[in-house]
């Protein structure tokens, strides 16, 4: 019996060596495919996830539901900590970042009175969006780039930055209106040639935008200004 | 081979007759409830939440069934002394252990398939038929459940029920926290400590490997090679659990 | 030649540090083919331990045990052995026939043989009327009877019964006794343990008396009665045990 036990032990050790090698492969692939949950280790967070075990997504959902109810009852400030929490739980959930950024730069912006406060919340929104971008799995999707570009363009009138991010957004699969907004941004940024080229691209590729793109090109060529 | 199969089948039959499958009804209620609860959200958000809730519920109830199924499979035989009648038949002790593994796997499988079918039905009903990523997630959840079951089975060959339950759930939680452990290891500077924690990282069942649902529900893709390696991980760890079970059961005086 | 044999069979249970309880101490037994052999002894005397060691449920501390010349873990040997545990308790959610089918499968019986055998056995233990009842609804006597049927499923050469008549009413006891005698006529070897002296007295060819893990005496009832100048089994039983206890107290004190 003792001899047999020794054999079991050897087999188990060999299997664990195998496990170790496979785990190295898996860890490598997690990095490769951005499956790693790259989280900052903070004591409170550790405790939170101890309770949650394998159910981070579920916790994010609960917080999201609560956020919805605050949102619809107009309690915008209460949304902020929830957004942070959801973003921590599921940073790959891209809606958190785009909706969060929009909340700060638009909804709360609209609610505060002074210019200083408005500027502050605009910047907070931008900052939140950029934080979302810092996760590699969000950096290869158009969503946050577009939201950033749009916020710079529409809210901040910061056209160089708007162009910068909208250009990045068009590098990844994206819906048609991204190209449309980029064309407007080029124009506002004073890059008339690029704006015309962009409109031509829009005209040739999206039938829905054909009329407006033709008009824009025409206006730009004749008046040098198309966007009201 | 045939005798292992009979032991497994008997385990499975008993669990079916004890109506463990009713737990699927709870699962169904939760998922249906969730889909009603989230209906005020946009379609995209709703779908994400339905998937989150369903995957989590499949895993959670699956883990419960795996742990209690495996626990009962061995300890009840010993406690009720039915094992005397088994071990005095011409079966090896290893036949008994592997047969029990089959039986527990069957229980997990049937529960899993019913829950997954229900979930997929709901997705189709919501006009979003599952894509291949959903099936990858389900596949990995299934392997995780089998692994959970085999670890509880291994523990049941040498521990008491109470200790086994605590240990199984403890491993379940720790196994899901392994990504933190990995980060800690990478930041360590002391070589000895690093080696020791690295060893611990290898020893603990890494359930977090099987958790890709947080990525899938938000539309990220996971490659087949990741799935393949993780399945291999699961199979290797199951072998370890079975060997441990065999080792202790061969020596066990019941 | 002995069909069941133990050589210096010893089982010590270790309870914590340095505390050892003797389950069985250097027991030498020889049981011949075709006889009914009874193991007698008070509760905790090592009867069940001895049977479990023979069947490989427990592992001996030292010594050897053989059935048909094969060690307890031998698969081939178990093909020819039937065992009825003490207070048998079976799978609650099976019916009687299902239980028997399960065991028939474990013995590798083919379907035709198994079917005939199961019908015959259910008839034999008079449970053919309760075919659909789950075992959890069985009475104690019914469980004992289905257990007996289960232990006979493979038509064993050797039948090992641990306290076969506990829980049976007088009629059940008589039926079991008759069954055992019938099996003996067929040439089977039967090893049974009991603390019901009268049962043992009526069926057993030879007996062994166990006490505190020690084998005190073996032989035919008549032979032992003569040796110990006892009038009947009860007298014999008490005499051997008292004698042993006195010796123990004089020489070594407690056995533990």
Characterise this structure:
Chain A has 228 residues and is mainly alpha-helical. Chain A folds into two domains: 1-36; 44-223, Serine Threonine Protein Phosphatase 5, Tetratricopeptide repeat. Helix content of chain A is 79%, strand content 0%. Chain A is built from twelve helices and no strands. In chain A, helix 4 (76-89) runs antiparallel to helix 5 (94-111), helix 5 (94-111) runs antiparallel to helix 6 (115-133) and helix 11 packs antiparallel against helix 12. The model of chain B has no long low-confidence stretch (mean pLDDT 88). Chain B is globular, with a radius of gyration of 20 Å. Chain B has one domain (2-251). Chain B is built from eleven helices and no strands. Helices cover 80% and strands 0% of the residues of chain B. Chain C is 39% helix and 25% strand. The two termini of chain C are 35 Å apart. At the A-B interface, helix 1, helix 2 and helix 3 of A face helix 3, helix 7, helix 8, helix 9 and helix 10 of B.
Helix and strand pattern of chain A: HHHHHHHHHHHH
CATH topology of the largest domain in chain C: Rossmann fold
Mean pLDDT of chain C: 87
Strand content of chain C: 25-35%
Estimated helix fraction of chain C: 25-40%
**Known CATH architecture of the largest domain in chain C:** 3-Layer(aba) Sandwich
- The residue ranges of chain C in which pLDDT falls below 50 over 5 or more consecutive positions are none
What is the level 1 CATH name of the largest domain in chain A?
Mainly Alpha
Based on secondary structure, the structural category of chain C is alpha/beta
What summary fits the major beta sheet of chain A? none
Which sheet architecture does the biggest sheet of chain C show?
6 strands, mixed
What class would the helix/strand composition of chain A place it in?
mainly alpha
The counted number of beta strands of chain A is 0
Rounded to the nearest angstrom, the radius of gyration of chain A is 25 Å
CATH level-four homologous superfamily name of the largest domain in chain C: P-loop containing nucleotide triphosphate hydrolases
Strand order in the largest sheet of chain C: 5-6-7-3-8-9
CATH top-level class of the largest domain in chain C: Alpha Beta
Question: What's the N-to-C terminus distance of chain C?
Answer: 35 Å
Domain tally of chain C: 2
Oligomer: heterotrimer
């Amino acid at each position: 019996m003792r001899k047999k036990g020794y054999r079991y032990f050897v087999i188990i050790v060999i299997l664990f060596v195998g496990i170790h090698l496979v785990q190295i492969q898996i860890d490598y692939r997690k990095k490769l495919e951005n499956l790693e949950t790259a989280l900052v280790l903070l004591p409170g967070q550790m405790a939170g996830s101890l309770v949650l075990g394998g159910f981070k997504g579920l916790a994010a959902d609960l917080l999201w539901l609560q956020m919805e109810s605050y949102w619809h009852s107009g309690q915008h400030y209460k949304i902020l900590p929830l957004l942070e929490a959801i973003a921590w739980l599921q940073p790959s959930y891209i809606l958190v970042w785009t909706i969060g950024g929009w909340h700060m730069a638009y909804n709360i912006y609209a609610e505060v009175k002074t210019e200083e406060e408005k500027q502050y919340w605009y910047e907070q929104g931008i900052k939140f969006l950029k934080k979302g971008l810092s996760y590699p799995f969000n950096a290869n999707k158009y969503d946050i780039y577009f939201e950033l570009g749009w916020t710079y363009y529409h809210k901040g009138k910061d056209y160089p930055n708007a162009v910068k991010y909208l250009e990045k957004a068009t590098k990844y699969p994206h819906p048609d209106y991204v190209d449309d907004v980029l064309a407007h941004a080029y124009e506002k940024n004073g890059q008339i040639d690029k704006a015309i080229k962009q409109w031509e691209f829009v005209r040739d590729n999206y039938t829905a935008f054909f009329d407006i793109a033709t008009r824009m090109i025409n206006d730009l060529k004749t008046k040098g200004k198309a966007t009201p | 081979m045939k005798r292992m199969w009979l032991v497994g089948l008997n385990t499975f039959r008993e669990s079916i007759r004890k109506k463990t499958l009713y737990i699927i009804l709870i699962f169904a209620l939760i998922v249906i409830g969730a889909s009603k609860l989230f209906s005020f959200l946009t379609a995209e958000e709703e779908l994400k939440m339905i998937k989150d809730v369903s995957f989590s519920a499949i895993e959670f109830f699956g883990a419960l069934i795996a742990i209690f199924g495996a626990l009962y499979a061995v300890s009840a035989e010993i406690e009720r002394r039915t094992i005397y009648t088994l071990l005095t038949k011409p079966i090896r002790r290893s036949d008994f252990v592997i047969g029990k593994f089959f039986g527990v796997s069957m229980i997990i499988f049937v529960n899993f398939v019913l829950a997954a079918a229900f979930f997929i039905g709901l997705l189709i009903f919501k006009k979003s038929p599952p894509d291949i990523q959903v099936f990858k997630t389900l596949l990995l959840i299934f392997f995780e459940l089998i692994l959970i079951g085999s670890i509880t089975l291994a523990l049941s060959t040498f521990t008491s029920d109470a200790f086994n339950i605590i240990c199984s759930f403890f491993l379940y939680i720790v196994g899901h926290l392994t990504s933190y452990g990995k980060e800690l290891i990478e930041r360590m500077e002391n070589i000895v400590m690093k080696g020791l924690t690295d060893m611990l990282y290898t020893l603990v069942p890494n359930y977090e490997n099987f958790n890709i649902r947080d990525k899938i529900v938000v539309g990220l893709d996971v490659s087949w090679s990741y799935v393949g390696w993780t399945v291999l991980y699961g199979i290797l760890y199951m072998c370890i659990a079975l060997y441990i079970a065999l080792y202790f059961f061969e020596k066990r005086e019941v | 030649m002995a069909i069941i044999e133990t050589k210096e069979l010893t089982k010590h249970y270790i309870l914590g540090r340095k505390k050892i309880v003797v389950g069985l101490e250097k027991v030498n037994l020889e049981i011949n083919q075709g006889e009914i052999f009874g193991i007698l002894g008070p509760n905790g005397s090592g009867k069940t331990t001895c049977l479990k060691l023979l069947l490989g449920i427990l592992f001996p501390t030292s010594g050897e045990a053989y059935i048909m010349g094969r060690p307890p873990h031998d698969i081939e040997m178990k093909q020819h052995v039937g065992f009825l545990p003490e207070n048998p308790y079976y799978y609650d959610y099976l019916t009687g026939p299902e239980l028997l089918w399960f065991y028939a499968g474990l013995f590798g019986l083919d379907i035709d043989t198994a079917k005939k055998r199961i019908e015959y056995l259910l008839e034999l233990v008079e449970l053919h009327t309760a075919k659909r009842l789950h075992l959890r609804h069985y009475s104690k006597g019914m469980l004992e009877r289905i257990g007996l049927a289960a232990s006979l499923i493979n038509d064993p050469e050797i039948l090992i019964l641990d306290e076969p008549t506990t829980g049976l009413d007088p009629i059940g006891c008589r039926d079991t006794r008759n069954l055992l005698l019938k099996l003996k006529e067929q040439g089977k070897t039967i090893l049974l343990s009991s603390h019901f002296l009268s049962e043992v007295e009526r069926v057993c060819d030879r007996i062994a008396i166990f006490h505190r893990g020690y084998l005190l005496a073996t032989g035919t009832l008549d032979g032992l009665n003569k040796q110990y100048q006892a009038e009947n089994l009860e007298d014999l039983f008490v005499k051997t045990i008292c004698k042993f206890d006195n010796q123990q107290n004089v020489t070594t004190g407690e056995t533990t």
